[in-house]
Specification:
CATH class of the largest domain in chain B: Alpha Beta
CATH superfamily of the largest domain in chain B: P-loop containing nucleotide triphosphate hydrolases
Number of domains of chain A: 2
Number of strands of chain B: 22
Largest sheet of chain B: 6 strands, mixed
Number of strands of chain A: 14
Radius of gyration of chain B: 24 Å
CATH topology of the largest domain in chain B: Rossmann fold
Structural class of chain B: alpha/beta
Distance between the termini of chain B: 47 Å
Number of domains of chain B: 2
Helix content of chain B: 25-40%
Oligomer: heterotrimer
Distance between the termini of chain A: 28 Å
Strand content of chain B: 25-35%
Subcellular location (chain A): Cell membrane
Radius of gyration of chain A: 20 Å
Strand order of the largest sheet of chain B: 6-7-8-3-9-10
Helix content of chain A: 25-40%
Number of helices of chain B: 18
Structural class of chain A: alpha/beta
Main location (chain A): membrane
Largest interface: A-C, 32 and 39 residues
Order of helices and strands of chain A: HEHEHEHEEHEHEEEHEHEHEHEEH
CATH architecture of the largest domain in chain A: 3-Layer(aba) Sandwich
Biased composition (Low complexity) (chain A): 35-48
CATH superfamily of the largest domain in chain A: Response regulator
Chains: A alpha/beta, B alpha/beta, C mainly alpha
CATH topology of the largest domain in chain A: Rossmann fold
Strand order of the largest sheet of chain A: 2-1-3-4-5-13
Organism (chain A): Nocardioides humilatus
Keywords (chain A): Cell membrane, Lipoprotein, Membrane, Signal
């Protein structure tokens, strides 16, 4: 990632997929040097993807957002789709309408003879562990949750893996970038709900801004998140773009010229507000230039959360028999989270780009600790 | 124009509303169509006016068969209709209402109001209708509004005019005026079909009388026929038209209202300082044209409306602050003026309506539960006692005839010991046979010592029942007179003449 | 009342006559069955046009019109297969096995309870759009008692249920009180209170006392075992409670003074007032009962299925309840049957999704269509009558010819 070109970043992700999953055609364009950072070593190195595990059935249960939520359900579902394409596994899936259906839906996947079941979202945590305990022969993964006790010990059974993402790390970089790019000296963020999977982005972002201020003696302000109070601006809703737009416009009216919405589809309203008011946006979860390309013009970058990669990896491990209950944590180091390539109009100079890369390395090294206030 | 109806039949499903009706209306005649509510008069007229399509039979105009697809066709053929409920736009002037629907324009869509004004003036003069083309409908009295309806029909060149129960909303004076207009129209060649169930009017103005019962023509009669004869044809049996009763001087005052004042929700003062008393064993009749405060007055007596000033006493006890529940429990019987609105629940069965305000008594309930057996037994008993014509006690009241609906209300209110009976329009829309029955029951209640208060806009009813008559006009009781006061004088009082002037 | 569609306009009041006369029920039953059949037919069409094999065959048909018969045959065959796969999976998923049946009942129970709440309000002339909010606060209250207090089994369950019912009843009663005292229209207030309920729940979920140990997520712990419905043969005992609730609603409507009053007020508030009934009391009571039933629906979910409380814990039960009550013609028996149907569709929908790969939206489309066809009975009846009318017309023509 020495260059800021998009292709390189795609390469990183692709390379990760390559090592983990094997032989995808487009992977070959990637940059192999990063493959060592892949989280798990898959011992087998398959060559013929399409019928590698034809008897293996990988399944998935959404939370009430459904697989077309343009957010974490959808990204996770991409992991399942990729697994089908890459390994020739069979698949089945169920969307949930409401929480009372979670247990049923997981059970229906058990009944369908699934070998691995991925559940999406912390809301399914109880039902997933219950089903995993009952069905030790099936490997379970759960997105955005990990089972720890008070002392931080993993309490998941041997067939259940939590998939979490330290999105604070790339958000830190995004915050630093935003602080460097702001003209008004004010940047803004808002979330969908005040829950950890959302606020971790906002907190990392704010920390990145703070770090920039320390380093450069500036006084860039963050609106929409208070690191001490752990509270800020929320749409209370992941669906309503109108609410997202309203919150963003409020932030812009208070001087913010860069908006970092962490609210799923509702965040698109934030980008719209930024576009309408000549402000910049930073997208989350996926590369906004791909998933929300109509806003690519005003994007500085995106904070990517590689749920698809992690999900596919979990399926691959289960199929290969190398599944473990060790919680996966996506980090900058293992590439499970990352900063997307800069937007086409972002106009990031080489110095800043180099600083970002340097900061990323410092985070990987542990020199900078993201998350502690 | 000569109108001939041959074998006209209208069926709704298995129900035959009109059965082989034959009728001839000669040019320039006033033809009265007499029949009880639900006899099929309105169905017949709606077919004539193109609102309904006959199942069988034909309508001939000057010998030529017609095929009306709607009122437009009927109007074009020269048939006009004045409905019981007027179809006027209140905020428009008379001329504007008359031109409505066939506006004349001076090209480019500009309304030619002057033409309409001129037409109204001409028609008004020709038939002596005395209507100002520039008056707003909402400003003119009901009787004049009705004349506007007649002008509307005449403006459409109607040769045959259908008047559907035209006198229901009029004061006695206005009724006389209307009859004058009808004679004038007739004199100038317009035929009139006059629908009514009031025998006096038929005799006063009709040339020919056709009586309809249960969808069939049961006979014709000349206007010289006696009221008793006509009533018998209408009902199918001999009817006692005047309830035989002796006028009485009541005993002690049971219900006393002092200085009642009611302001309606729109802020209008509708009852102004009204005081009266009703004595045990007498009927006090409140006469008056509709809309002079009677409605609000009796609502305040029951507690449905809280009087803004004044005091209501029942046997000396102040009940001004009581709600309907307490008032009913104290022994007030209440027959509301609009039964379908306030008197019964249409979708409820006869059985349920017969206990609508009694279900909570010990007789019909125990704790939170209803005593269904007692309610059913009560229904059987009352249906028989009050001769309520219903298929079963489970039949919804809405599907009964008006008279039987009213009997349900009356039966319910009379089925418990009463101190006071308040009955407003007790026989409105009720057939002659039922009127007789209801009047007899009211007199019987009086004879048992109940204080009875009757509110009616029908002078016949007031005379038939009252021992004393109070006249209400513009929210006040303008006079209290004895029942031997002449009709004309009472009519003047109802129209707002002060007693001194009329005396 | 005149301002909004009144419930009686939608729910035909067939009750009094229907009680005595079974035949008067038949048109309603026939219309409902016809509506269900029509909805399934439209659903089948959707399955066909979204089936890839059918689409491919159709493309081939366009591309090679010469082989018309072959491809047309394929289309018919694949269509039949697709529909058979989908609907057999639907039936299997709903009633095909013990667990399937259990699932159907589990999903029906809250729908029945909340549906009864909507139905009883309908009968009093109130359009209760607020079952959602009532259920949500009920869920929070029941859940809170369930996971916070350590009480002996039995007592704990009763306390949790009581809390859920009380919270729901309070939330519903609020609507009745607002309507009775200020005339605020219940459609407006219930919709608004749905929103308020969600934010109230979110507010509490953000409090430490409502969160799982060691977690900042907006989710409570599940209720303790002592506060959950005991299970007999795989079925939790909340389900019979739904049937009891239906019986109780029937009793209230049909046998009690309150029911008499509420039906009277629903059908003609003016006459009811004139007859000395208190509309204030009726509005408050009936909305409290409606809320209580919605709270019971929440108990079915939280205490019956061991659910942690979140702002989505009751799903869309409050809105589905409206359609259930509508389909059930606002009668207790009808609501139970409609609740069972929707529960079966929901459980069967899972089967279709899991084994036939049919998107879950199809079930929602079918449910919506059933309600649409039920709400437009004239439309449905016309489907049935087209044939008859044609024959009638031709006979008239023959008559004319003879004349």
């Amino acid at each position: 990632m020495k260059k800021t070109a998009r292709i390189a970043a795609v390469g990183v992700i692709a390379a990760l997929a390559l090592t983990a999953c094997g032989d995808r055609e487009d992977d070959k364009k990637g940059d192999d040097t990063k493959s060592s950072s892949a989280p798990t070593d898959v011992s087998s190195s398959p060559t013929d993807a399409l019928d590698q595990y034809p008897d293996f059935k990988a399944c998935m249960v959404s939370d009430s957002g459904g697989f077309d939520d343009k957010s974490f359900n959808q990204t996770s579902h991409d992991g399942l789709t990729n697994a089908v394409a890459d390994y020739g596994v069979q698949s089945a899936e169920v969307e949930s309408n409401d929480p009372s259906q979670f247990a049923d839906n997981i059970q229906s996947m058990v009944d369908e003879g699934c070998n691995s079941i991925t559940t999406v979202g912390f809301l399914l945590a109880d039902d997933t562990i219950a089903s995993a305990t009952e069905n030790p022969d099936i490997d379970y993964s759960i997105v955005d949750f990990a089972y720890f006790d008070d002392k931080g010990n993993n309490t998941a059974p041997a067939n259940l893996k939590g998939l979490t993402f330290n999105t604070g790390q790339p958000s830190f970089l995004a915050g630093y970038l935003a602080a460097a790019k702001t003209q008004s000296g004010v940047v803004g963020t808002f979330g969908g709900l005040n829950i950890p999977t959302v606020t971790i982005f906002m907190d990392g972002f704010a920390q990145g801004v703070d770090y920039y201020n320390e380093e450069n003696g500036t006084d860039v302000a963050v609106l929409g998140w208070d690191r001490e109070k752990k509270d800020g601006s929320f749409t209370e809703d992941f669906e309503s773009t109108t609410k997202g737009q309203n919150v963003a416009e409020e932030l812009i009216s208070q001087g913010a010229d860069i908006i970092f919405p962490v609210a799923g589809p509702a965040g698109l309203g934030g980008l719209q507000a930024a576009k309408d008011n000549g402000a910049w946006g930073i997208w989350v979860d996926t590369d906004g230039c791909v998933s929300a390309s109509e806003y690519c013009d005003i994007l500085l970058t995106s904070v990517m959360k590689g749920m698809d990669v992690a999900v596919e990896q979990g399926i691959a491990d289960a199929a290969a028999g190398t599944f473990s209950n060790e919680p996966y944590s996506g980090t900058l180091e293992n590439g499970g989270v990352d900063l997307a390539p800069f937007g086409p109009n972002a106009d990031i100079d080489d110095d800043l780009s180099a600083t970002i890369d340097d900061l990323k390395q410092q985070i990987i090294d542990g020199t900078i600790e993201v998350g502690a206030p | 124009m000569r109108l001939e109806i041959k074998g006209l039949t209208k069926r709704f499903g298995s129900f035959t509303a009109n059965d082989q009706i034959d009728l001839v209306i000669e040019p320039g005649e006033i033809h009265c169509l007499l029949g009880e509510n639900g006899a099929g008069k309105s169905t017949l007229m709606n077919m004539l006016y193109g609102l309904l399509t006959p199942t069988e039979g034909e309508i001939l105009l000057d010998g030529a068969p017609t095929d009306f697809q709607g009122p437009g066709d009927a109007l074009a053929a020269g048939i006009g209709m004045v409905h019981q409920h007027f179809m006027l736009v209140p905020v428009f002037t008379v001329a504007e209402n008359v031109m409505l629907g066939h506006e004349k324009t001076r090209g480019a869509g500009i309304l030619n109001r002057e033409a309409a004004r001129k037409q109204v003036r001409e028609l008004s003069e020709r038939y002596q209708l005395h209507v100002d083309p520039d008056a707003l409908i909402e400003d003119i009295p009901v009787g004049v509004q009705q004349r506007v309806e007649i002008i509307k029909a005449l403006a459409g060149n109607a040769k045959i005019l259908i008047l559907d129960e035209p006198t229901a909303v009029l004061t006695p004076q206005e009724i006389d005026e209307l009859m004058g207009i009808m004679r004038e129209l007739k004199a100038q060649g317009t035929s009139i079909i006059f629908i009514t169930h009031k025998l006096r009017e038929v005799k006063a103005v009709g040339d020919k009388i056709t009586v309809i019962r249960r969808g069939k023509v049961v006979g014709t009669a000349p206007p010289t026929a006696s009221e008793a004869e006509l009533a018998e044809m209408m009902v199918g049996r001999s009817v006692e038209l005047a309830v035989s009763k002796e006028n009485k001087i009541g005993g002690d005052a049971v219900l006393r209202a002092s200085n009642i004042t009611v302001v309606d929700p729109r802020g209008h003062l509708v009852v102004k300082d009204v005081s009266f008393e009703v004595r045990g064993g007498e009927v006090l009749g409140i006469a008056g044209v509709q809309g002079n405060g009677q409605t609000e007055l009796i609502k305040s007596l029951l507690g449905l409306v809280k009087p803004d000033a004044g005091k209501i006493e029942l046997e000396g006890k102040d009940i001004s602050r009581h709600g309907p529940r307490q008032s009913l429990a104290e022994g007030i019987g209440y027959v509301p003026e609009d039964r379908s609105h306030d008197g019964y629940v249409g979708s409820f069965s006869v059985r349920e309506n017969l206990v609508l305000d009694l279900y909570r008594t010990k007789e019909f309930s125990a704790g939170p539960a209803l005593k269904l057996d007692a309610i059913t037994a009560n229904a059987k008993h009352r249906i028989e006692e009050f001769d309520i014509r219903t298929e079963t006690p489970e039949t919804p009241v809405a599907s009964l005839s008006g008279g039987n609906q009213q009997k349900v209300v009356i039966a319910r209110e009379f089925s418990r010991p009463l101190k006071v009976l308040i009955a407003s329009q007790p026989t409105r829309g009720v057939d002659v046979g039922s009127i007789e029955f209801i009047h007899k029951r009211i007199i019987r209640e009086r004879d048992q010592g109940t204080a009875v208060l009757i509110v009616s806009t029908e002078l016949d009813e007031i005379y038939a029942l009252s021992d004393r008559i109070a006249v209400m006009y513009d929210g006040r009781i303008v006079a209290t007179v004895s029942p031997d006061t002449p009709r004309e004088q009472l009519g003047l009082l109802m129209a707002g003449a002060t007693p001194e002037v009329s005396a | 009342m005149a301002m909004s569609p009144t419930p009686e306009a939608i729910v035909p009041d067939t009750e009094p006559a229907a009680k005595r006369d079974v035949s008067s029920w038949l048109p309603t039953v026939r219309d409902t069955l016809l509506a269900i059949a029509l909805a399934l037919t439209v659903g089948a069409f959707l399955v066909i046009v979204s089936d890839e094999q059918v689409i491919d065959a159709f493309k081939d048909l366009i591309a090679y019109p010469g082989s018309f018969l072959i491809y047309a045959g394929d289309i018919v065959k694949y269509s039949a297969e697709a529909v058979w796969d989908a609907y057999s999976a639907l039936v299997r998923g709903a009633v095909g096995s013990g667990p399937a049946l259990q699932r159907t009942l589990e999903r029906s129970a809250p729908l029945i309870c909340a549906g009864l709440g909507v139905a009883i309000a309908f009968r009093a002339g109130l359009f209760n759009i607020g079952a959602q909010g009532q259920a949500l606060v009920g869920a929070l209250a029941a859940g809170y008692v369930g996971f916070t207090y350590d009480l002996p089994a039995g007592i704990h369950l009763v306390a949790a249920i009581a809390a859920g019912l009380a919270a729901g009843a309070f939330w519903g009663g609020l609507v009745g009180w607002l309507k009775a005292t200020s005339g605020a229209h219940e459609v407006i207030t219930t919709i608004m209170l749905n929103n308020v309920a969600r934010f109230v729940v979110l507010y509490f979920l953000a409090k430490e006392a409502f969160q799982k140990h060691n977690s900042d997520n907006l989710i409570t712990p599940p209720p303790m075992d002592s506060a959950t419905f005991p299970t007999v043969g795989g079925l939790h005992l909340g389900i019979p409670l739904a049937v009891v609730a239906a019986g109780a609603v029937w009793w209230i409507l049909d046998r009690s003074k309150l029911g008499f009053e509420l039906r009277a007020v629903g059908a003609n508030p003016d006459a009811s007032r004139t007859a000395g009934m208190s509309t204030t009391k009726v509005y408050i009571m009936v909305m409290a009962i409606a809320g209580l039933l919605s709270g019971l629906a929440a108990c079915m979910t939280v205490l019956g299925l061991h659910q942690s409380v979140t702002d989505q814990v009751v799903g869309s039960v409050g809105f589905d309840a409206i359609t259930v009550a509508l389909l059930g013609r606002a009668t207790p028996l009808g609501t139970v049957l409609a609740g069972l149907l929707f529960g079966a569709l929901s459980a069967g929908g899972l089967g279709m999704q899991a084994s036939a790969g049919v998107p879950p939206e199809l079930i929602q489309v079918i449910q919506a269509l059933i309600v649409l066809f039920v709400a437009a009975p004239a439309l449905v009846r016309n489907f049935g009558r087209i044939k008859r009318r044609r024959t009638k017309k031709s006979s008239v023509e023959t008559e004319g010819a003879v004349a």
